[in-house]
Amino acid sequence: MWERGMASIVAPKGSIARAARVLDVLSLAPDGADLTEIVARSNFTKTTTFRVLASLRDVNYVYQDPASRVYRLGSKLAELARNAERIDVGALAERGMKRLAEMSEDTVFLSVPEGASAICVSRTVGAFPIRTLTLDKGDRRPLGVGAGSLALFCSLPEEQRTAMCRVNQNWLADYGVTEDDLAIAYNFFQSNGYALNKGGVVSGMSAIAVPVVTASGRLVAALAIGAINERMEQARIDDILLPGLRREARRLADRLTAFEKEQSS
């Protein structure tokens, strides 16, 4: 496990990055790790490692077993993880994505906005033999590239869309996407209520997507269905795929809205 998870790691700089690195090391050691092991796996000096561990112990993110002297992830970190799970959009969308994958037999993607990027946070694969695995969990693209990312882009106000185009100019060019392309896609989105990527990322593969917006107007995510072009004929989009996407997007938005209300009460 150690070798598989840690082989390509380079020691990061900055106190937060160092703390995150030590936590990463401990996350791959379910039985704990002693100081020597953590030093070896983090690529830090013994002094740096000890100082980082001491800081993490102070906030209960890490504790040390008094008998074995090994370090383990602490209770406070577990509490944070439980809280994060409550607002994990991917976790909230899991059942809906499974329903979409079973209904369509195609691949379902969930993307969230982060700055000028869209990140795929979840993917569910349907039963159809030819699968569109154009995105994997954790993949990042500029806003506007791919159906889910395009749905997020098109849901932004004009000022933000203009800023995204400026910031992502070179990144968009890597995908052969221009501002004119995005303007055409935006007009399509406005007219039809969904984003369409017709083979723009992978030849022969298409996808459609809709945004997930809470009652407060917060843009949270985009749900997308991808398939080979032959399965993306307009009648199938209109009669099967789009109604399913919109239904699950509403359900997810309702759950997120309920969470927002719970947090504000």
Structure, described:
- It contains 11 helices and 8 strands.
- It has 2 domains: 2-77, Arc Repressor Mutant, subunit A (Orthogonal Bundle), CATH 1.10.10; 87-264, Beta-Lactamase (2-Layer Sandwich).
- It has a 6-stranded antiparallel sheet, sandwiched between helices. It has a two-stranded antiparallel ribbon with strand order 1-2.
- The radius of gyration is 22 Å and the shape is elongated.
- Mean pLDDT is 89; it is low at 1-11.
- The protein has 265 residues and is α+β, with helices and mostly antiparallel strands.
- The longest helix is centred in the C-terminal third of the chain and has 31 residues, at 234-264.
Which CATH class of the largest domain? Alpha Beta
Q: What is the end-to-end distance?
A: 44 Å
Biggest beta-sheet profile: 6 strands, antiparallel
Rg for CA atoms: 22 Å
CATH architectural group of the largest domain: 2-Layer Sandwich
Keywords: DNA-binding, Transcription, Transcription regulation
Pfam family, one: IclR_C
GO molecular function, one term: DNA-binding transcription factor activity
Domain IclR-ED: 69-258
Short description:
With 265 residues, this protein is an alpha+beta fold. 51% of the residues lie in helices and 18% in strands.
Keywords:
11 helices; alpha+beta; 51% helix; 6-stranded antiparallel β-sheet; two-stranded antiparallel ribbon; DNA-binding transcription factor activity; Tscrpt_reg_IclR_C; transcription; 2 domains; 265 residues; single chain; Arc Repressor Mutant, subunit A; Beta-Lactamase
